[in-house]
Each structure stands twice: as structure tokens, then as C-alpha cells.
Amino acid sequence: MPKNKTHSGISKRVKVTGSGKITHAGSGKRHNLEKKSSRQTRRMDGAKEIAAVDVPRVRRMLGI
User: Fold this and answer.
1) Going by CATH, does the domain composed of 8-62 fall within 4.10.410.60?
2) CA–CA separation, 64 and 60 (whole Å)
3) pTM given for the model
4) Helix (H) or strand (E) holding 23
5) Of the residues 5, 9, 27, 33, which has the maximum number of CB atoms within 10 A of its CB?
């Protein structure tokens, strides 16, 4: 049987944690940061978990 290939686009955008959760970087930290408050940009830090409805599709794309 041929092997399944990992979707290279999704592999660059998500990370699988040790417990198996799929995380992604939050949006809004790329540009126009001067007009956003420090409080707002601080809350945009860190990884967010992928929505439950999207997890099966992302897992399939990753070949998990």
C-alpha cells in the first residue's frame, strides 16, 4: 500500500501537543499593532486550540 502524505500547508500552521490536542497560533498579531492596546496584544499571545468541529478534518490532513 502507498503511504499517505501529510498536507504540507496544515503541517506548517498547526502543532500537536503531547496529549494529542491540536493547537494553532491566534490571529491579529501580524500588523497594525500600534493602534491596538497592550492589553489586547498581550491576550493575543500564545497558542489556541483548534475548534472541535475542525479536529477530524485537520487530523485527516496530518495523517494522524
Assistant:
1) yes
2) 6
3) 0.78
4) strand 22-25
5) 33
C-alpha to C-alpha distance for 19 and 8, rounded to whole angstroms: 22
Which residues, other chains included, contact 14 with Cβ-Cβ below 8 Å and sequence gap of 6+?
22, 23, 24, 50, 58, 62
Picking from 31, 23, 30, the residue whose alpha carbon sits closest to that of residue 47 is: 23
- Secondary structure letter of residue 37 according to DSSP: -
Closest CA to 42 of 25, 23, 52, 29: 29
Is the separation of the CB atoms in 58 and 14 below 8 Å?
Answer: yes
Residue from 32, 33, 31, 28 nearest 45 by CA = 28
Predicted confidence (pLDDT) per residue in 23-48, tens digit: 999 999 999 999 999 999 999 888 89
